[in-house]
Amino acid sequence: MSGPWISPAQRSGPDPRLRLFCFAHAGGGSAFFRPWREQVAQDVEVVSVVLPGRESRIRETAHTRMEPLIADLVEGLRPHLDAPYAFFGHSLGSVIAYEAARALRLRGEPGPEALVVSGRRAPHAPDRRPPVSQLGDDAFLAEMVRLGGTPPEIVRQREMVRFFLPFLRADFELNETYLPKAGGPALTCPVYAFTGDRDPLATPQEVGEWREVTSGHFRLRVFPGDHFYLKDSEEFLAALRGCLAPAHAGR
């Protein structure tokens, strides 16, 4: 399975019981999820969503507004919804996954079996931090290092900075300008919300407000760590496997 909106399947095999679409944080890509191919259930196919402006789509213009991104994304994902599926998103990826699930529901398409969100306040929760996408390069990069997603040694490599800075800024602008549309039906699938107990961007209370987006089951889990608490965390992966197990147990 391949296409412009997804990476090649990270787990091969016919007729997966569940397909897990993964949406990365701002500036993130498929490499973030690659280790999961050996760490998620054998009958779950892990695929990473590739946004315009990165990886195989580096020559495309990155989106800075949510509505046109979701319209294009839903069309791009439709051919790959031929198996039961779930959405996972971390940080910015959480609201992209959520809005994609809403759009599919509004269009009468089969929705995800589960939505798993991580490291991001609920869509309706106000942002308590000032915007950073329009800061000068040095201040913007310092903020990226502070959040823990960009190693200081990468920032010192000016050629690499010139390469990734435009789409990283675009992602932050996309996140900072996003407002959920009012109205429309709530999701009905289970929603599982995760965060780190020292995440400067998403407190447990803010992440707990995801319970408002679904009429289905909701669970909040708080793990030790910062915004990237999930990296190399077996505790997190065990919790993720637990979320996905009900979605594909009867398939």
Give the end-to-end Cα distance, rounded to a whole number of Å: 20 Å
**How do the helices and strands follow one another from N- to C-terminus?**
EEHEHEHHHEHEH
Low-confidence stretches: none
How is the largest sheet built, in terms of strand order?
Answer: 2-1-3-4-5-6
Provide the β-strand percentage band.
5-15%
Structural class: alpha/beta
Count of alpha/pi helices:
7
Rg over alpha carbons: 17 Å
Shape: globular
Number of distinct beta strands: 6
Mean pLDDT: 87
Helix proportion: 25-40%
* Main sheet makeup: 6 strands, parallel
Main attributes?
33% helix; alpha/beta; six-stranded parallel sheet; 251 residues
Structure, described:
With 251 residues, the chain is an alpha/beta fold. The protein is 33% helix and 13% strand. Strands 2-1-3-4-5-6 form a six-stranded parallel β-sheet, sandwiched between helices. Strand 5, helix 6 (204-208) and strand 6 (218-223) form a beta-alpha-beta unit. The longest helix has 20 residues, at 158-177. It is globular. The mean pLDDT is 87.
